[in-house]
Amino acid sequence: MDALDGVPRSVLGYPVKTRTQIVATFLVPVIFELMLYIVLTTADILITVEHFRNGAPTWAWFTLTLIWLPAVVCFCSIVSTPERWPERIGFDERTGRFLFNQVAILVFFPLAALYRFSRRIFWSVEALFHDKGSYGRAQAVAKITETSPCELYHFLQAFLQAAPQMMLQLYILLRDGTFRNYDTVTVQVISVVCSFLTMATIITGYQRFESQKIVGRCYPWSTAEQATQRRKQLLRSTSTAVSALATPSIAPEADPIVPNIMRNFYSRYGSEGERESTANERVAVPTAEQSPRKTLNVGAFNFDRQQSKAHQDPYVNFTDDDKLQEFSGPPDTVDRAGSKSRPSGRSVSFKLRDTAEELEAMDHYLRSAEDVRGYATDDSDDEYLKPDGFDAVPKRPAPPTPEAAAGMFHRVSVFRHMLLFNAEAYIKEKVPRLPEGMFDHANPKEGSRKAQGTGDQTDGDAISLPSRRQTIVGLEQDDVVGKAVLFLGWVMFLLMRMLALSTFYVFFPLYFWMLVANHYLLMIACIVYEVRLHEKLERYFFYLFLAYMYVFSLLEFKIRFVHVRWWYVGYIGLVLAENVASLVLWYNLGAFESWWFYFLHHTIVASGSLSVLCFLFYYAFLRPKDKVLFVNED
After folding, report:
1. Most buried pick, 98, 259, 289, 499, via CB within 10 A?
2. Three-class DSSP category at 333
3. Domain containing 167: what range?
4. How far, in Å, CA of 272 to CA of 15, rounded?
5. Is residue 346 a part of any domain in this protein?
6. Positions in the chain short of pLDDT 70
7. Separation between Cα atoms, residue 162 and residue 66, nearest integer Å
8. Cα(first)–Cα(last) distance of the chain, in Å?
């Protein structure tokens, strides 16, 4: 498997180099996330200090609690997972070390997050110095993509720290008398902006996670064993379209009549590699007892043009039979060039019995080929084999013509069975919760039909139709341009959503809680309807948290959307309707005199329009392609 498997190989349809893939997919996003994390954490800590200085301990404790909340939830999630504990039951050294590490990460969670970001940046830079396909490149990419519990903390930070912190600081900024301490206001604005960017980064990365997970992507916080097992299972149970549709090359069958002349030659003289290795061994370790060598003596005579022209083969006018009679004497070897007349000239030494055996093998092959031509069937090309007997009467009668009527009805019946099978498979795949026994053909009539269909398929006249193969359709990951446009769209969407909810809470707090509660319950109902009550019980608790995430944004996480367009069109339409309704209420019925609220009104309208335009442009031109995997048949 390629080390960069799953990483986009092109940008806007143009293929890019592997170093560009590493920079655009790993290095630049990690550096951006590191800068955001440092600024956001520093700003929240400064806000807490400023609230204590300004005599507002309630806001200070709220801000401090939101900073620690993602780390605490991440610690509880890791400790409560049995797969992360050591295999041995009981409290031993490994268990104590594991628990100590998790407590240390909980206490010093900013340092753990910085270490994770720094480690990924280091290996991203290291991967740039290695060539494509090298072991160093594969090892560096594996270090970049390795899983870590810090990724779970980074995911939870977007919804447990950034989102509520944004709502809290916007509410404090919009209250009366909050613009007196400009130092606090500056830090709050920085915190709100970084919270927007942090949420948009996480939402963009996990936008269609489940559709990408079924074709190879893993949870970045899963254990190393789980990730390895997931990859092996996917490789074992599925195959790509290229490997599934590729047909193996069919080598031509060897002619059984052709004698193995080359095999005999290699058995006597050895192959080229064996001769080289044997020569090296003889040079390295000379021995006294060696078998006779067949040599080709090359001297100055070989490079003299005049003497080489004068050289004549003494057996040039001999036939093969004459050579056999000439060489049937007792001498074992003969010098073809005449060693007496030219002792320094060219001489080739060979065994006469080997030449005789090769000539006999060639003669046997020619005679056997003639016999085969004599027994050739009518399918052979007689025009080239026997041109004289082209008009001869065929030796065998022509095969009988098959009955057309029976074959035609037989093919129609087979085609009908194939259509019924494909229709049943499509209904089983697309329609959930089918009635029991809907496609159970257990009655005698259907059983006889099935037996008849099976008998038809084994008939020699049956046509061979392609069968339906089960596929898994997922999504590839977005390229750098698609991620940039989608990131900008979610920044504008979150800006519209947060400003609309915050200003609405300032004027109508009761209606604000009613709106949020109704939206939350509606999201729970949609999630339960989507999963069709087929999920495990422990996931229902996560669906409560997922519905909370859907108050601010929508992402395909932990559940796969069956109707993706309906989900996104319905959600964006619902949020736009809620924002417009709240905007109309507080703008027309709210009592305000500051120009700040007029500015917020125009900002909400502009950001909502820009977000819709970004989403439409992304969906029309930049959305990732479908990735199809074929399920391997057992």
Report:
1. 499
2. strand
3. 10-245+467-632
4. 43
5. no
6. 1-3, 5, 88-91, 176-180, 239-359, 363, 365-414, 432-469, 533-538, 633-634
7. 8
8. 22
